[in-house]
Design a protein that fits this description.
Layout (H helix, E strand, L loop, with lengths): L12 E6 L4 H4 L7 H6 L3 H6 L3 H11 L1 E7 L1 E3 L2 E3 L1 H10 L4 E4 L7
Parallel strand pairs: 1-2, 2-5
Antiparallel strand pairs: 3-4
């Protein structure tokens, strides 16, 4: 409508690709992968990992309203489809799960 005022609504960001590397999974990182995290200044997240509740708090702080959580596998580091599904069920207003398949079978 011409001249009508739209209600002011804050639109939060959506993170289209996110993985929550848990402390248990973080213990499996190979030393050869450290350079990636050092490059971006987040080495502590590599070493310590993150609980899902910490990820939620960081999302809120950054103005991220929702994230698409992806399963993740890299040389022993695993965030499984089941983990992603459980988090998406536990926090349905914050996470949408994205499963993965191994094309090698």
């Amino acid at each position: 409508m011409k001249g009508a005022q739209m209600p002011e609504e804050k639109i939060l960001a959506i993170d289209a690709w996110a993985s929550c590397i848990t402390p248990e999974a973080a213990k499996q990182w190979p030393d050869s992968f450290r350079h990636v995290f050092q490059r971006y200044g987040s080495i502590e997240k590599l070493v310590e990992g993150m609980q899902i509740e910490t990820m939620l708090a960081e999302m809120d702080e950054a103005g991220v309203g929702m994230a698409v959580l992806s399963a993740f596998v890299y040389e022993g580091v695993q965030v499984t489809n089941d983990m992603v599904a459980a988090w998406a069920r536990q926090y349905p207003k914050k996470f949408v799960g994205c499963g993965t398949v191994d094309p090698r079978g």
